[in-house]
Task: structure prediction
Amino acid sequence: MKKATFSDWLKQSLLFVSHDPWIWAGYTLFVGVIMTIGKVSLALGILLSVTSLFVGVGIAKYIDLKHSTENPVGLYWAINKSLPLGVLAAGTIMVFWFTFMVVANLLTGDVDKIGHFFFYWELTPENLNHRSAREIANWIYSYANITLIFTLLMLISFASWFSYPLMLFKDQSWSQAIERGNHAVSRNRNAIYKSLGFIVAEALLCTTVTPLLTPVLYMLTSTMMYVSYKSIFEVSKPSL
Result:
């Protein structure tokens, strides 16, 4: 393994978009559309947004293979390969979130709010009238930005930044991915922490100033996860 830098990962991730801007932008738009479901059910919103984040890693792999090989795989391959593991990871994040919410509501005495996790209708004229596009986007995507931060915290607490791509592309078990991922993190700690800090800062920015860029941030994070994984674990392959 070689040491890497955050600036290299960010530069490669931004240049990565040019490999296939239509697929990159198309998936980003898709993510933006399904994230609106989170205003109907937070549970479903978390499940879909986190799944989208992890499936985006598979989409990034597809774009890379399409750009760098003579016999690229199809888009169906990327979705079919990454979706089951992505749903499993998202379901785990959802369970953690629900557990924390139940404990918090029990401590504060707001037991009636527990049911809001599964269904809470907010798409009413009162919440939509007389609001600008930015305000509506902020209202719709605020949970997604918090979900992204929560997901990153869960990754660094119970797995590692590299666990998902190692399980997805190297077919490693959960324990193997954690062990190998943590070893890579220890060797590239500075780059990892700067990457996490950048994503968290952007997520916080998207909660107030640039909410419409939330889907873009999700796809950029997926791309950075793939680019950073490839730079360390697939160094024998052509660089991006």
